[in-house]
Fold this sequence. Notes:
The protein is α+β, with helices and mostly antiparallel strands. The protein has 16 helices and 19 strands. The strands form six sheets. It has a six-stranded mixed beta sheet. The chain has a five-stranded antiparallel beta sheet with strand order 8-7-19-18-17, with helices on both faces. A two-stranded antiparallel ribbon has the order 4-5. α9 packs across α11, α9 (about 220-230) crosses α12 (about 285-295) and α11 (about 275-285) crosses α13. The N and C termini lie far apart (about 90 Å).
Amino acid sequence: MNRSIRRVAVFAALLVMALLVNMTASYLLRASSLDNNPQNRRVTQAQFGQQRGAMLAGDSPIVQTLPADGTFPYLRTYANGPMYAPVTGYFSYIYGRNKLEQYYNAQLMGTDDAQALQRLMDEISGRQPEGATLQTTINAQAQQAAWDALQGKQGAVVAMDYTTGAILAYVTAPSYDPAALSSGDLASTQTAWQTLNADPAAPMSDRAGREIYPPGSTFKLVTAAAALEAGWTPDSQVDSPTQLPLPGTSISLNNADNCGGTRITLQHALQVSCNTAFANVGLQLGPTALQTQAEKFGFNSSFGGDVNSVTSVFPSNLNQSQTAMSAIGQYEVAATPLQMAMVGAAIANGGTEMQPYFVSQVRAPDLSVISQHTPTAMGQPISATTAAELQQMMQAVVSGGTGTRAQVAGLTIGGKTGTAQSDLVRAPYAWFVGYVTELHVAICVFVANSPTNEDQSGGATAAPIFNKVVKALRG
């Protein structure tokens, strides 16, 4: 009998010990994730009762928390909210958080492990707890220029320092005001949410990094890179017929304009954006070479970090006609404007692709630096030699090709236009991907719809927006 009792007692003790271990592990390992889960209403209630950290663009606050009368003692305020919404995101009692408001929630609330000492000092001194401040990489002038240029259009602009990966402008249009979702009036918050989600223009869509589109002829940069990496040169000759019958189909691929002959150099093909020439390049290289090169630039994988983009797509198992169309950025090739900015950035940076990021520093309330971003190379998608050759080819596009409207006097600019037909009803998507050597900046402009321009194209619609952002960065 005693032996049985002892066994039950030992078993019960083990159960209690397992429970204690589980509770301790849960506290130590899961506390942070539970605190930062936007569905945790108890934590959300507490967070709306304290001073949340600010976000800065340069020296100016674009998001801050101010005292308020009513249900909550503090409320989040957004300066130029629609312009910065795809960067900052929203902080809502009902609908949680997204973008930087979510990614850096622990730091903004002061609950990050690195802020433990600050929390202790606040508790000892009786001070009201304060969250950390985020110093973003956004250049306010470039952001404003991109925003102004996109008014009345649907599209996006991404500008980045190609030597570091710092995002200098990140705009999507149309947009929304995060303040409408951060209101203390919960009924109005619900109304705003329903209105925004019912809007056919999809103002809450992040067209810069969370939506993918056919990149059209801007993808010819990837195809050209694959060719140069395979041993071609800018002077390599390629067939450029007026029409190219697509293998295995009854369809022929046409050129938008005269390519300058039926056999031209690779550089001239890029300069005039010759479809049949690049389709032939793709057919000669084959689908594996194209997919490999696209994936080196970041297609079919995520960039990670605080930018949190969706994955751009280059399809697998292509037949010959699909390969030809994919080589010019059509068929099922789909990219975010961020991805195409990364392609331009890697070319401009000598072949090295840097990880994109929004926040350069996290600062304590006393302005001391809690953490600082270190620029990180993601890889080397192309050699330095290939990058130099592509720079030469892209500069020819701007100096005397399809991208002349991107020119800014006194600056060395390379670029590539793109005009992607997504269906037979809507206007084509207009793209421009380019870089400026003196400013160390790469920029992608994407316009899905520009009702004021009936002849929507990369050169006519997107390149002038690039021009305006460059001038804003130059100052």
